[in-house]
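Hypothesis: this fold can be encoded by more than one sequence.
Test: take the structure tokens below, design a sequence, compare later.
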């Protein structure tokens, strides 16, 4: 006897989308509407009532948080002896907009996302944003544990070479300086506190842009604390759903090997 889900999938007008999701992620959706919404860019938002328009922006916001949590948990367990600075930098490399854009192209999302082609609305972050929105769709449709399993086994272990990523030496402090100069912003790394942790000095460094606090990190050397705080700050400035300086150009880094 055919299941209700099978029948709805087989005879649905969205049959091709069901198959695309299956080919990309390895499972069939339950609530196909979530995935259709995740693939709808704000340039083609649908007005539902009282002037309210819906697109994948809210899903992108949620997906960013879910993805960050899953990647952080994966790295925390994979590298039990590594410090905060290393883990933060590795997460930044994986979830950077450039990285997610390239991943989305590899997965074939460029052929699925809907956007206004007439007005050239495709932004530099559109494909990465779409990937995050789809993460949220999976999470809402199947739950956190299922979403975590899919992202780790079908995405992370398949499309990322962790050892190769470790070899990339990204200077986030230098990138922050370039970004601040380009956008005429005042960048500061402030040593906020020094304390003893056992027999070692522990340094607290905070990054400020135009006197707005971005991120803080602790380490046993000022240089390491600055490095970790810079990586955190870059993540914040790269987050297109929650930018503190909307008038500034986005912080996008290329993690490709030269």
């Amino acid at each position: 006897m055919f299941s209700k889900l099978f029948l709805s999938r087989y005879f649905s007008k969205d049959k091709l989308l069901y198959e695309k999701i299956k080919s990309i992620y390895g499972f069939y959706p339950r609530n196909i509407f979530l995935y259709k919404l995740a693939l709808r860019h704000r340039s083609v938002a649908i007005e539902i009532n009282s002037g309210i328009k819906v697109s994948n922006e809210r899903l992108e916001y949620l997906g960013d948080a879910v993805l960050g949590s899953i990647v952080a948990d994966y790295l925390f367990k994979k590298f039990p002896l590594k410090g905060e600075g290393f883990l933060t930098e590795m997460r930044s490399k994986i979830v950077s907009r450039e990285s997610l854009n390239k991943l989305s192209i590899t997965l074939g999302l460029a052929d699925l996302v809907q956007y206004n082609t007439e007005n050239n609305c495709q932004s530099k972050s559109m494909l990465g944003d779409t990937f995050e929105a789809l993460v949220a769709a999976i999470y809402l449709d199947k739950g956190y544990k299922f979403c975590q399993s899919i992202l780790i086994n079908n995405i992370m272990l398949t499309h990322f070479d962790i050892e190769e990523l470790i070899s990339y030496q990204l200077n986030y402090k230098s990138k922050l300086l370039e970004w601040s100069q380009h956008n005429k912003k005042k960048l500061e790394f402030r040593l906020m506190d020094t304390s003893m942790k056992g027999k070692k000095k522990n340094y607290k460094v905070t990054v400020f842009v135009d006197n707005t606090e971005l991120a803080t990190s602790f380490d046993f050397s000022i240089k390491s604390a600055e490095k970790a705080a810079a990586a955190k700050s870059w993540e914040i400035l790269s987050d297109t759903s929650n930018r503190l300086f909307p008038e500034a150009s986005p912080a996008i880094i290329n993690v490709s090997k030269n």
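The chain has eleven helices and five strands. The chain has two domains: 4-167, 172-238.
Hypothesis status: open.
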